[in-house]
Amino acid sequence: MLHPLFPFFLLALAGANAWADPFDGPLTPAALVREVLARNPDLPAMRAAWAAARARIAQESTFDDPVVSYGFAPGTVGEPQLDFGQTASLAVKLPWPGKLALRGDAAAREAEAVGQSVAEARLALTEAARRAFADWVFVHRALALDGEDRKRLERLQQLAEVRYASGRASRQDALHARVELALRDHRRLVLERRRREVRTRINTLLLRDPRAPLPPPGELPPPQDLSALAQLRARALAADPRLRALAARLEAAHRRVQLARRAFWPDFTLGGGYNSLWTDTHKRLTLGASINIPLPGRRRARLDQARAETLRLEARLRQRRAQVLEDLQDVYDRVGESRHTIRLYRTRLLPLARQSLAAAKSAYVAGSGDFLDLLTAEKEWIAVRLQLARAAVTICSAWRPWRGSAAGRWRHEGALVAADFRCAGDGMGGGQGLSACRTLSGQGGGRTGNPQGRTQSGDGVDS
């Protein structure tokens, strides 16, 4: 007999599993994708459907069961003057040559299409996990670097108050610094909320409690070479699961058209029998064959249906092919733009913004500069690093498995940005970083928001 506390033990065990950390060390995209695929409950069900579809191949490509019949004459039972009367027959149905092979091929193509649906589901989960990882990286960088920005603002506030106390500046300078710090406190709260949102999204993918803790993100993968667009186009068309599924279904439709044409030809039934009721022993054994007479009406309608289905799948295949190439071109252009943005900001705008901030601070300390100019230089410094971070997150979240070596180079560009952050020793504005995260998660593919280069506050309003 079960212990009365056994159900509570099961509940506690389930709760412990919901909070258990499946990761050893920092969170990486490979580890996150692996756990998401391992925990998703839909994939086993889809694999079972795939196995069921494969099992239909043998069912469609085998002969029908032979038919055996037997009968006897009850009046001859127990009659010594009469021989026992009985009949037996065996019949086998043989379809027109080629029909079974076409049925098996059509079932095999349908099974292949079902298998591609499993690959498509894995791809969707992989992309969702990598987008969530990109947001996780971004929000952690924003939180860490926002603290450094706040320390710098606090030093500027102290400087303004010292100058005001000594009579070398107005009280308005200190008030401006306090306002900026208050806004930074609000942006910190918004970033914390965003961090919880991303954590909830990742835990939902992992089927864990939304409040379960997650480790900080790890480093980006090592760099690889960028493939040419022509190679990526060929790879995308060859590897897209939905395109492969449509191609398999189109092949199955072609087989059904051929099968519908073969349906105008008859099937055969071969049989043999033995009948002891005949007194002449030479007549007791019989062999024979029969065929059906195919009437054209129903078969012509079935052929028209198969042809129409083929036309529909051909149209969908062309549409999907164009969609794949459009998505590839869009992602390629956006990542190319992000790479250009990274180079531009690393080589020109980031040094200029750093020099502008240093010059504004030196001028204010010397008494020849205005505090608002110093705050403006500070905001420009934040905006430059925001655009740099947005470009890196765009590259990271624009990943596709068919890009192969290209993905590594794009991730390498993101690693260069991370190195810039570490070398600069300063971070992006917290609330501004949030707008980029929201844009990426809302677009699904990581589109670069705010192309005009304007800065945004924590609530997404241009500033």
UniProtKB/TrEMBL annotation:
SUPFAM superfamilies: Outer membrane efflux proteins (OEP). Keywords: Signal. Residues 439-463 are annotated as: Disordered. InterPro entries: MdtP/NodT-like, OMP_efflux. GO terms for molecular function: efflux transmembrane transporter activity. Residues 1-20 form the signal peptide. The keyword Transferase does not apply. Belongs to the outer membrane factor (OMF) (TC 1.B.17) family. This is Outer membrane protein, heavy metal efflux system. It comes from Methylomarinovum caldicuralii.
